[in-house]
Amino acid sequence: MNSRRNSFPFLNKYSSISDILGDHELASLGDAFVNLIYSLALSKAAGRPVGRKLDSRVLSSALRKAGLRSLLPHRMDRHKLADAAEALIVYGWLSGVISLEEALNMVSREGDLSDNICSLLKLVWERVGLALRGY
């Protein structure tokens, strides 16, 4: 996948997964991106345009299932955990380690939505980790 670091120079400020997970501005952008993916998945299934917001419970549950909770400070509420998930997902797309289509296909799979997002988070985490190490 292509790196978009030239298009989004602010991506260069992140040196660890924890930096990404904790960035509130990135989470704000991630909120819109994750809701787009979710709405596209619903639209694909319904065969018509659907616009929805993904519940923070689903995102926070997926973050825990993915094993990322331990990278964050204690005493974070569900909303902050969801923000961290959104930040990582949009960082993955911005940095070019995952495409919109790949994310959409993962979220659209049959089964539990939280499990699908967990798989997406794990994939982005793995690829971002490799990218940050320069592989």
Write the layout of secondary structure elements.
Blueprint: H1 17-21, H2 24-46, H3 56-65, H4 78-94, H5 100-108, H6 113-132
Helix pairs in contact: 2-4, 2-5, 3-4, 3-6, 4-6, 5-6
How many β-strand runs? 0
Question: What's the CATH C level?
Answer: Mainly Alpha
| Name of the CATH homologous superfamily | Ribonuclease III
Strand percentage lies at: under 5%
Largest sheet: none
- From the coordinates shown, what is the CATH architecture? Orthogonal Bundle
One letter per element, helices H and strands E, the order comes to: HHHHHH
Question: Which regions are unreliable across 5 or more consecutive residues at pLDDT < 50?
Answer: none
Helix fraction? 55-70%
By oligomeric state, this entry counts as single chain
Helical run tally = 6
Q: Radius of gyration over alpha carbons? A: 14 Å
Termini gap: 12 Å
CATH topology: Ribonuclease iii, N-terminal Endonuclease Domain, Chain A
Gross geometry: globular
| Structural class by sheet pairing and helices | mainly alpha
Averaging pLDDT over every residue, what do you get?
A: 91
How would you explain this protein's 3D organization?
Helix 2 (24-46) crosses helix 5 (100-108) and helix 5 (100-108) packs antiparallel against helix 6. The chain has a single domain (15-132), classed as Ribonuclease III (Ribonuclease iii, N-terminal Endonuclease Domain, Chain A, Orthogonal Bundle), CATH 1.10.1520. Helix content is 62%, strand content 0%. It is globular. It contains 6 helices and no strands. The mean pLDDT is 91. With 135 residues, the protein is an all-alpha fold.
